[in-house]
Amino acid sequence: MAFDKDAFLSSLDTMTVMELNDLVKAIEEKFGVSAAAVAAPAAGGGGAAAAAVEEKTEFNVVLVEAGAQKVSVIKAVRELTGLGLKEAKDLVDGAPKTVKEAVPKADAEAAVKKLVEAGAKAEVK
Q1: Residue percentage of the chain with pLDDT more than 90
Q2: Which among 54, 71, 94, 113 is least surrounded, fewest beta carbons within 10 Å?
Q3: What is the pTM of this model?
Q4: What pLDDT band is residue 38 in, cutting at 50, 70 and 90?
Q5: SS3 sequence, 49-106?
Q6: What is the DSSP letter of 123?
Q7: Stretch 59-68: mean pLDDT
Q8: CA 38 remoteness from chain centre
Q9: Contact at 8 Å (CB) between 79 and 71?
Q10: Looking at residue 29, what DSSP letter applies?
Q11: Could you give the CA distance from residue 2 to residue 18 in angstroms, rounded to a whole number?
Q12: What's the whole-number mean pLDDT along residues 65-80?
C-alpha cells in the first residue's frame, strides 16, 4: 500500500492541538529526533538557518569602548595588531571598531581578555 500524503494532511487538519502534540512526541520517540531542530531551518528560510547551525570557526574581536585607561588600551591594541602608535590610537578613538578579523575562537578570547585587562570593553563576534 502506497503512502497517501493527501489523506495524511487531511487527517492533520481535523486533529486538535493536543492530538498534534501527542503525534509530535510519538514521532520524536520513534525516530529519535527533536521537533525543535527540525523547525529551526524551516522557520529560518533554509540556507541562513543551515549556516547558523554550523559551528563558527572564525571570529572577530571588536573594541566596543576604550574606557578610562586609554593609553593601556592603545598599548594592548598595538601588541595585538602590530599597528603603529597613530594607527592604534585612531582605532581606539574610533571605537566601536574591529581589532582583529577571522581569528580562531581561542585567539579571539585571548585578545578580548587582554583588551579588558587594559581597561577596554571588547567582545567576540
Answers
A1: 0
A2: 54
A3: 0.54
A4: very low
A5: HHHHHCCCCCEEEEEEECCCCHHHHHHHHHHHHCCCHHHHHHHHHCCCEEEEEEECHH
A6: E
A7: 85
A8: 19
A9: no
A10: H
A11: 28
A12: 87
Closest CA to 77 of 88, 64, 62: 88
Taking the chain, what is the end-to-end CA distance rounded to the nearest angstrom? 53
Identify the three-state secondary structure at position 1.
Answer: coil
User: What is the distance of C-alpha 90 from the center of its chain?
Assistant: 28
Distance CA 16, CA 40 (A): 23
DSSP state of 32: T
How many whole angstroms separate alpha carbon 49 and alpha carbon 19? 28
* Strand arrangement of the beta sheet that strand 59-65 belongs to: 97-103, 59-65, 121-124
Looking at this protein, which amino acid is placed at residue 59?
A: F
Q: Please say if the pLDDT value at position 109 is more than 50.
A: yes
Rounded to whole angstroms, how far apart are CA atoms 103 and 78? 17
C-alpha cell at 36: 525543535
Mean pLDDT in residue range 60-68:
85
Cα separation, 28 vs 38, whole angstroms: 11
Judged by DSSP in three states, 118 sits in coil
